[in-house]
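Here's what a typical entry looks like (Membrane protein insertase YidC):
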Amino acid sequence: MNQTRTFLTFALLAVAFLLWQAWEQDYGPHPTPAPATASSATSTTGSVPGTEPTIANTGAENAAASAQLVTVTTDVLRLTIDTRGGSIVRSELLNYPVTPRTKKDPNPAPIRLLDDGTTDYFTAQSGLVSANGAAPDHHAVFQIAQTNYELAAGQDALSVDLTWTDASGIKVIKRYTLHRGSYTIDLDQQIDNGSGKTWDGRAYRQLQRVDRPAPVYSNFLQRMSDQSRYGFFGAAWYSPEQKFNKIAFDKFEKEPLQNLQATGGWVAMMQQYFLGAWIPPAKEADSFSTTLVNDTGSAPHYVIRAVGPQISVAPGQQASSSAQLYVGPKLPALMQTVAPGLELTIDYGMLKIFAEPLHWVLAQLDKLTNNWGVSIILLVLLINLVTFKFTNAQFESAAKMRKLKPRMDALKERYGDDRQKMQQAMMELYKKEKVNPAAGCLPLLITIPIFYGLYYVLRDSVELRQAPFFGWIHDLSAADPYFVLPVLYTIVMLVQQWMMPQTAGMDPAQAKMMKFMPLMFAVIFLFFPSGLVLYYVVNGLCRLLQQWWMMRRHDAAPANAAA
């Protein structure tokens, strides 16, 4: 009965988990697109603390001013910089294709994280504002020497300079520096004051994007197996005092972030597997805020901004403001070196305490095997080795319960409908025979956290995105395309049922549920990542072998003794 309850509890929790995710996606709160209204480029603004000017949030352009698009390519990034504002409007992650590489398509298009398209609009903007002088914000047009830059062989860094000048004598050089093998971009805004008075102003950096478009699915199975529907999509920030926080787009209007003072923090826009983040200098005091823009002429734009401290530049002097922009994958070890707390953007949810150790163990195993699928198999063997004592206790308890079945049936006949006396008699029997009915719960307490922790690891770890196994499995983070693994797991469960003797105390309803469970699991696992199903196929085989060995040990021993 303990084994039965374990399976039933696991099945019900898995079904509840699927239903909860589907409900949250379909009926949970979502941002409501606001009606577009005509406006100028500066009609909706956000105040900058300590300055009179405001920062225009919208991306509207002045058609009278000409701008160019500049391509910058390294070994891992391809950026597109718009000379209007010097904004980074596109970023292609060259090592992360949209679809898996195949023989038919060995070079699929790379993921585009930043994008100036209407549907997937997401740009990294920066600029200066001043209360008493000219300053280039993210709408000002810069000049550039060329429109194509590429990191040459043997070159470790590549700099791109954009220049803005004003008739008053103010000159600003916006310099981006990219490094080989790095997703971190250095930004330096250099201010040369050639005017006759002191220039006062502030630097700001912001990320602006729209909500993700509603996905289109060809069938129900494709919809339910799309794990990207359940990951967090929105803004986030970090400060040493408040630590990591995030805000969904539907909360921007009602619960905005307003002028949070932070030294040593960052602001970001998150999505599954990838993120963009502005990281001010560690000792710089910045003001973080969010803004919702409804007058862009299309979908609402969501802005998260970091405004730097006051900068004063005397006539004939020079000053600069620096920051870093991270546009890349959510790799924990890499992000830990970029900024404190940046690795917290990997959204493991409430089961972080289980998911993070599982990810670490899998990463170490992958270093040995160079195959995440093989690493999952080794993880199964490792966990079964660690939990062998608990599993053995479960089978010992089940074997003892089967031996007590005739005596338990006798107690039921003796006490009839007096359930209280029957329970007391059964507890005395358990105590006398040293049987622990709760022993079967111990493996469940380990299995359930591992199941959900590994689910989040497979869903949100970019290392497992498009990670192949063998044969037909080309992506361990996606559902099995041919349902082979769910069928294999169903077969393993049926064999386990066939081998399992009738347990004491099982009522007819439980017996029917046990017969129905293999089909239930087959349906559940159709939607889960194939890496998770692989884990349970191997785990089921391990338990099948354990069950066979322990039944021979515990059930055959009394028979041999009697002979």
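The longest helix spans residues 530-562.

More examples are in the samples folder.
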